[in-house]
Amino acid sequence: MYFSINDAVELANGIRMPVLGLGTYKTPGGPVVEKAVRTALEAGYRSIDTAALYDNEKGVGRALRQSRLGRGEVFITTKIWNSDQGYHKTIRAFEKSRMNLDTDYVDLYLIHWPVMGEYHGTWRAMEELLEKGQVRSIGVSNFMIHHLEDLMREASVAPMLNQFELHPCLYQTELVSFCRDNGIAVEGWAPLMRGRLNDDPLIMELAEKYGRTTSQVLIRWALEHGFVTIPKSVTPARIIENSLVFDFSISKEDVVRIDSLDRRERTGPDPDNFNF
Ligand SMILES: NC(=O)c1ccc[n+]([C@@H]2O[C@H](COP(=O)([O-])OP(=O)(O)OC[C@H]3O[C@@H](n4cnc5c(N)ncnc54)[C@H](OP(=O)(O)O)[C@@H]3O)[C@@H](O)[C@H]2O)c1
Which is deepest, 16, 87, 178, 272, by most CB within 10 Å? Predict the structure, then answer.
């Protein structure tokens, strides 16, 4: 499916987003995130996923400035946190994130979680930011089908991407199909299931078969499905390892075997039942 770290998916408005990005959830701000982002950029990553919640946007911005890359060469995603949702708060929160990242614009701005009663107002603000060119694309995160349907009933612009938990043990086929049918790109978080699949017998068997690590097999599985994927690491050797996934492919039969690990198991909260 994808054979270069520079491969990208095209979002509904034509913006291209790299298929591989660096995740930064729980990556401490300051030197740790700066080093992780620097390592990733040197390894060829051109996309960084952060969020206001992660409290590391400033470090991401600093690492980008330190790199010799032009702003247009790196795709930056950030997200609005739940307590900042609603039209007016979103406009203010975006400006704070933009300043933290020290950038004129953000490539992709996401609603972090579907906070009921708030996300319509949040979305109106995001449509306005898009219109003004302060964000190049807008999307959502952790939205289930009914959230997407509800949002799209009132929206002028449909979400261009949905970022949700997605790995072999939570292979959300109905949600993936719904997104695809509606022109919404699919991005998976926790592609490594936060380490819980490293000793799975099938993943270990396939790692041996393809001469790769279990993490590489999991990332390649996401790529074989055409998902945008954002494995997180603060460990330089792992950041590099996770990028070396474009010179092999997993056979269709083996992809189907991995698909069969689905047991609807989440590592994170359920978007239909969260209280934060
Ligand atoms: N929208 C949302 O609500 C949401 C929620 C969760 C995550 N996300 C995004 O998705 C990204 C990825 O998800 P995640 O961070 O939850 O989980 P993940 O990427 O599945 O797993 C990260 C864990 O795997 C370890 N790891 C990374 N590469 C490895 C390798 N090659 N071998 C062995 N272990 C490895 C990391 O350790 P070290 O760092 O210690 O190396 C870390 O403990 C996040 O960082 C964030 O950007 C979004």
Answer: 178
Cα separation, 81 vs 85, whole angstroms: 7
The distance in angstroms from the start CA to the end CA of the chain is: 37
- Is residue 55 classed as helix, strand or coil in its secondary structure? coil
| Main-chain phi, psi angles of 58, to 5 degrees | -60, -40
Of 174, 177, 168, the C-alpha closest to 256 is 168
pLDDT in tens, 48-87: 999 999 999 999 999 999 998 999 999 999 999 999 999 9
Instruction: Give the three-state DSSP class for 211.
Output: coil
| Mutational pocket test of ligand 1: of 192, 194, 239, the residue with most ligand atoms within 8 Å of the beta carbon | 192
pTM across the whole model: 0.99
pLDDT in tens, 208-228: 999 999 999 999 999 999 999
Enumerate domains of the chain plus CATH numbers. 8-259 (3.20.20.100)
